[in-house]
Specification:
mainly beta; four-stranded antiparallel β-sheet; 13 strands; 4% helix
Amino acid sequence: MKLIFEENFKNLDNWNFEYGFVRNKELQYYTDKNIELNHGLIIYGKKESILNKDYDNNSDDWRKNRKYAEYSSSSINTKGKFAFKYGVLEVKAKIPVSQGAWPAIWLMGDDEEYPFCDEVDVMEYYLCDNRPTILANFLYSYKGEYNWITKEITLNYFENKDKDWENKFHVWKLDWTPEYI
């Protein structure tokens, strides 16, 4: 193998910001103001009132019919700047596990519309059945149909092994070959 991409977040040249209400009817409004480069990348979620720049009082679209958001965050991606098929992906990250947090490290194809572009969630964190859970997901499509494969591990599993787990950095890894993911 050879290294084809490495990011230590000294700048954001390889990244695009998302703006506004983006997906899943989430409550946070994405902006480029909730990010800091300080010996790596830090993304903040804030409880604040923020004006929806796409607001339209007559719209039925959830992205437009809310005048204000009560929360803000940042989301970045490499769409149009970097893509790969097959290899090893490793991300060293510390994730928030507070109520309402939804950190994720994920890959998505860009040659089809969602969900037929496929998706790999290397790591996602959110409540499942009211339990804080770490998930790895794989969404794949074939002949106009799509399926999810999900692995869920409760946060308790990790905290029982290490009481200080949530305060540490961890390596999230994906191995992807033509035979397996």
